[in-house]
Q: What sequence folds into this?
């Protein structure tokens, strides 16, 4: 969830970061913005006091980042994190604050694991997908050097590179192109690239993977797909797995409007338009569906407009907005609690109507999409 911006200015002294001053700014921001600063005041102060000497005495940026994130882990809330220029999230935070900054990428979003970085999200139409990589692959090397999602790609933009990765215990490799893009466009272009029709059981179904609910461009991409390429389909799959949230308002509009076929004509010209889409709808969710996507899933489920297929969502639903820490970091703080119909979704999530235990089979087939198609074929 995104609220009004708040920028935290942290002074830099000399050629290196003044970590003591940086910590003071972070502490002030948490004490003034944390959503439970009154209800959990004593616990909040205990954690801040515990990590203050460690952070203030940090000897490097990595050490400072670890201290702050260890504290955040102890808080145990969603939408709470600290990110630097070595993190993909840093560039996402910049996008959310309206600052354009390219990040190097291979078309995937990663998380650190033993032995390298696991693909947490494989973006539609990206270089990694084209090279045959899959969600869950662990990338360990690029051009013979240790791989990391940002630092190892710097200087390789617009060039071919060979990555080494492990899948189910087997080491593999592939060639792909490193590119640069803003985090906002990274997800928007993947949403647009995902649009397709699927033939199943003699019927034609529409599909789109909505990667974020961050702004009007994502909303327009969805509406353009529903009322454009996919308007003549027999049913619809709206995939909101993984990615990030934003605000849910307006994203369900195409599916709640009455379905009316309009024709606009004048001498020698005619244009057909679909006003709403009321055919069967399946929404795919997983444990990576978070924030606004969970509120959206709740709306679709409680209204019975859609059948939810997949697994229970993340339960990460607190409201937030990034705060800049100098020009080298961003602090994300949970600022408001969120309830839907009085139901608190934080740490609970939204359960599917039709649970599916396994997301992909050994060949890479998407079992969630297969189940969504089966559900649609019965409607």
A:
């Amino acid at each position: 969830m995104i609220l009004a911006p708040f920028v935290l200015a942290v002074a830099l002294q000399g050629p290196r970061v003044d970590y003591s001053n940086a910590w003071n700014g972070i502490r002030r921001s948490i004490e003034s913005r944390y959503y439970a600063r009154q209800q959990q005041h004593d616990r909040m102060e205990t954690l801040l006091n515990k990590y203050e000497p460690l952070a203030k005495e940090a000897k490097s940026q990595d050490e400072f980042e670890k201290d702050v994130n260890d504290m955040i882990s102890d808080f145990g809330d969603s939408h709470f994190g600290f990110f630097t220029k070595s993190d993909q999230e840093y560039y996402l935070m910049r996008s959310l604050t309206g600052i354009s900054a390219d990040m190097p990428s291979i078309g995937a979003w990663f998380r650190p694991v033993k032995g390298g970085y696991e693909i947490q999200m494989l973006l539609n139409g990206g270089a990694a997908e084209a090279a045959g990589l899959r969600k869950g692959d662990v990338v360990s090397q690029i051009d013979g050097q240790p791989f990391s999602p940002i630092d190892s790609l710097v200087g390789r933009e617009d060039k071919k590179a060979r990555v080494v990765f492990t899948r189910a215990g087997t080491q593999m490799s592939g060639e792909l192109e490193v590119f640069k893009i803003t985090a906002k466009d990274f997800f928007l272009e993947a949403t647009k690239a995902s649009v397709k029709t699927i033939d199943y059981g003699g019927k034609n179904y529409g599909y789109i993977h909505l990667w974020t609910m961050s702004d009007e461009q994502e909303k327009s991409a969805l509406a353009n797909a529903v009322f454009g390429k996919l308007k003549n389909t027999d049913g619809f799959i709206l995939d909101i797995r993984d990615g990030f949230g934003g605000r849910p308002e307006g994203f369900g509009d195409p599916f709640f409007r009455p379905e009316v076929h309009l024709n606009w004509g004048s001498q020698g010209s005619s244009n057909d338009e679909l006003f709403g889409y009321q055919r069967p709808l399946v929404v795919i969710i997983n444990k990576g569906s978070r924030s606004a996507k969970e509120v959206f899933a709740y709306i679709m489920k409680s209204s019975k407009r859609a059948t939810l297929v997949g697994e229970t969502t993340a339960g990460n639903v607190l409201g937030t907005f990034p705060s800049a820490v100098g020009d080298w970091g961003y602090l994300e703080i949970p600022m408001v609690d969120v309830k839907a119909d009085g139901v608190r979704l934080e740490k609970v999530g939204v359960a599917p109507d039709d649970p599916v235990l396994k997301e992909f089979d050994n060949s890479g087939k998407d079992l969630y999409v297969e189940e969504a198609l089966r559900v649609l074929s019965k409607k």
